[in-house]
Design a protein that fits this description.
Two copies of one chain form a homodimer. The first copy, chain A, is an all-alpha fold. The first copy, chain A, is 73% helix and 1% strand. Chain A starts with a helix and ends with a helix.
Chain lengths: 320, 320
């Protein structure tokens, strides 16, 4: 096994070596711009590492790893249009820098390109790789649709929320792990177990994201704190507070926009009074434990186990 | 060989039998709505007919035929958002009936679903089917980008226009034919020849569309006549007129919106004075001839040859 940063370097090298056509520039420049974003590259690293953990050369899965990163960036591009988001990782989003038409069309091209990359040197695994990849993609669209539906509902349950984040964000981490296992010729049960590790890791990650959006350090988090509260975003924290806040404070502040700082403070103090920061961390720890239990069922080296365990533990400890 | 309408019925049956999930309805209802549009289904019919013409059971290519129709409808859905079109085949477009977010996300789901359908029972042809399909998809995005780029240019040449419509519309007809040949286990050269037939058919079709937009019968054409002229759309007719109109009438009317009927009449009379209606039909006939020449190089029955020749000849004679 290698260090996270070595896999990251391999992914970044492969991304720089992608030979996209140059013309028409209106189609391809936004793709280069999107990929040049300096993201965490967590998903392709998971693919390479899972492949190596199961005894294969990680380079056997490099095209599939890059395909998954391409797909992930496509979803961000289209989500930013749907959410009308202006900024992504400190830079203007594609539809702001160019326009909506460009963002839609370049995103479509990224989705097709990701399928093309997935097929490169997939060999006998092509049909199964496509099934995993396309099935995951459909889950992600379903998750995005539920997320949008939740904006207009005030009765979203915690169970519905967990299912939404499982679909919208976690299954792609599962897919990344399962894809590495598939490309390593691992048996189906091993692929499924690695997939489940990734899903649990993804749930822990998303809940920590929700936590950091309210409780993060503005200097390390990279974006303004309290955005979810201001947008009445139905996160685990807000849904729990809506259920348990007998003072009615949280519900009375939904839709309010006149004093953002006061709204954040008031909602946060309800969260605190309900012990939600501690309780969300208990939940995150439970998902980390589930992820680690999946590792225990895999025949991998102690070194590989440590690699994936550390990733899971870092999802709780990270502050950005 | 069967009649066009029998293949059409087979395609419509397969589309009705698609088992899309029902939830979340916000994602899947727009897909059902889009497919239920009563389109010509020319592309999937080409796939089934090419497969049968080469001696195979057309049902061997039914999933690939439906995949191509699904893909085609996905491009219409996203194009309508990009063009801000309100009506498609007499009904509100998806982004008008729902909203932009729904149109973007449902379109993405249709693209992924089309790839899934393409893979169904593709057997040994999976890798090649994907290559043909994804390569065609990239061409279509490039064509759409060129089409959008042309809106802001006044120096588009006829050669650039022909390349744009080849990419944006013709290669998908080529792909539909080539896919049928592939699924019939035909040799690569046969697939290429059938692909070329489809491309020539597509060019003839698109030029006839351009002609009908100005010269069609409003009662049979199904939409208002003169839309391309009003929108200064860079069609073959407008580009030729911009090159050859020494009176400067056409250029002086670009961008003018105050008297639509007068603009249509004035531009049309320049087209007439330059004999463009006759000249575009000479060009269409040349593409029809090229399509028929491709048929002559294929080992197909006289009956099959007649089927595909009639399709090409109809592209010139049709009035809708």
């Amino acid at each position: 096994m290698k260090e996270f940063n070595e896999y990251l370097q391999t992914v970044n090298d492969a991304l720089s070596n992608l030979r996209l056509p140059e013309q028409p520039a209106g189609l391809y420049s936004p793709i280069v711009y999107t990929l040049d974003c300096g993201g965490k590259r967590l998903r392709p690293v998971l693919t390479l590492a899972a492949c190596e953990a199961l005894g294969a050369d990680p380079m056997r899965s490099i095209h599939q790893a890059v395909a998954i990163e391409m797909f992930h960036n496509f979803t961000l591009l289209h989500d930013d249009v749907m959410d009308n988001a202006d900024v992504r990782r400190g830079r203007p989003t594609v539809h702001k820098k160019w326009n909506n038409e460009t963002a839609i069309l370049s995103g479509d091209a990224m989705l097709t390109t990701s399928t093309m990359l997935l097929s490169v040197k997939a060999g006998d695994h092509l049909a199964q790789a496509l099934e995993l990849f396309n099935g995951t993609a459909m889950n992600i669209y379903e998750g995005q649709q539920l997320d949008m539906d939740f904006e207009n509902r005030s009765d979203v349950t915690v169970e519905e929320y967990m299912e939404m984040i499982r679909l919208k964000t976690s299954v792609l981490l599962g897919c990344a792990c399962g894809m590495g296992a598939l490309m390593a010729d691992a048996p189906f049960e091993t692929q499924v177990k690695f997939f489940e590790y990734g899903v649990n890791l993804g749930l822990a990650f998303q809940l920590q994201d929700d936590y950091l959006d309210t409780y993060g350090n503005p200097e390390t988090f990279g974006k303004a704190i309290g955005g979810d509260i201001l947008n009445d975003k139905k996160t685990w924290l807000l849904i729990m507070a809506m259920n348990e806040d007998t003072t009615g404070t949280v519900k009375s502040l939904l839709g309010s926009t006149d004093n953002p700082a006061a709204k954040i403070e008031a909602v946060k103090s309800v969260y605190n009074s309900l012990n939600l920061p501690e309780r969300i961390h208990e939940l995150i720890s439970a998902y980390v434990d589930s992820a680690i239990k999946c590792l225990d069922l895999l025949e991998i080296s102690p070194e590989a186990r440590t690699f994936f365990m550390d990733l899971a533990l870092n999802s709780v400890n990270r502050d950005k």
